[in-house]
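Chapter review: from sequence to fold.
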Amino acid sequence: MKKHKSEDRNGGRTAWKRYGALVMAGVLLAGTGGMQASLQARADEDETEKRITLNVADDKEDEMDTEEAAEETETEVKETEAETEETETEAETEETETEAATEEETEPEEKETFAEIDSVDVSGAQIITTDVSGIVEACMPSIVSITNKAVQEVETYYYGTQEYENTSTASGVIVAQNDDELLIATNNHVIADSTELTVCFNVEAEDEEDLIAAAKVKGTDARHELAVVAVQLSDIPKDVMGQLKIAKLGSSDDLKVGQAAIAIGNALGIGQSVTSGIISALNKDIDLDNYEGELIQTDAAVNFGNSGGALLNASGEVIGINLAKETGDYVENMGYAIPIDTAIPILERLVNRQTRDKVEDEEHGYLGITVVNVSEDAKDLYNMPAGAFVQDVTEGSAAEKAGIKKGDVITKFDGIDITSHTALVDELAYYKVGETVTVEVQTANGGEYESREVEVTLQGDGSASDKKKKTDKKDKEAEAEQESRKKDAADDVPDYGEDDGFSFFPFFGDADIF
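The token string follows.
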């Protein structure tokens, strides 16, 4: 910009010099005629003065000479005046012509004209320094901390799949209450793979243990990164219950960029904290795993542990469920939240589900199928939906009776989105033998996948798939052979050469039979 300004100034000086040169040329040219006339008049005057000062004879001759000289001088003066007037007239004419020529030369070319842009009108706008303490005080009792003890499976090169227990903390928002439960909204990844969930309320209590209560997963929506957990009202002390609040849900559709935003959550797992800022952007399409939809962007700090917490407006209404933050060396204050208008219909469905407990292994039902994950490559190459791919269907199984076929993709189980084979396994852990469940499957038809629903009555422990699963678990020799193959996998990969045009895509992961 500075360079442009410098060039403009230089250009301006050049233009001024050009214009000045034209003007000065006219002055000089006009002055030339006047100077010639002045010089001529001065020459005539000098000549006259010389004549006047001539020496004359005495007496009459001197008198006559004097009279004649006077007459002659008068005549000459008149002639000189006439010549002077003529010279001045010529000079004025020449000056007029010169000025006309100068004006012709300096007359600018006609340029295209544009409408003037209006100036910024800030008469009705103002910056308000907001004290959010009142909002925080009113809304804090509706925000909770969530602790998840989970078992995660980690694939290792030498030892195969290993299970590890870990503990994570995050946030939640109290959104509803029924006759028996307090219902809390959070993110799906907050409660994923949970074996034990606890909720910590953010109110006052003489005994801090009274603030902690056990919770259960009531429902999840993996595609939209939402979940609802339930706490039994009987597990909450009365003095704590009397202080809790249900959050007021606002509207994200009415938001404007620049409006105030307040984030509350269990940042870094060290207790509830508050950050504030503005709505930085709306309808942001961010590439996030396990989330489909647009997000709200805010510069209110959203840190690890804020997941599942509330993003509030200036009225203390929930306008978003905090989800993620942008990280990197060149990134600052870029947090994202699920718009509350996206979340409301999903949460309404989840809070009305039946809360289930996990059943014992010998009690839970089976479908009688082998399923694997659909990889990203398979999704892109074959336009396959995310879900659990049916690799095999056991003859005579519950799945076969319901019409599920090999090659189908299971995308919903009892109304819950299924995005992977592990998600299906996790859901089945809550259902007993003999229960009838609605399953949504996608079936390939002419290169496209068509959705259909089937009713499946879960089979029990005596099923062919269950026997096969038990047999596989007890087959130590086969397991050892599998581990051996994993160790030697690098040496066993065939060399297809550079020009064979062969590409290996891991379309499907490990299979589960259930």
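Two observations follow directly from the output. The radius of gyration is 47 Å. Residues 18 and 106 are 10 Å apart (CA to CA).
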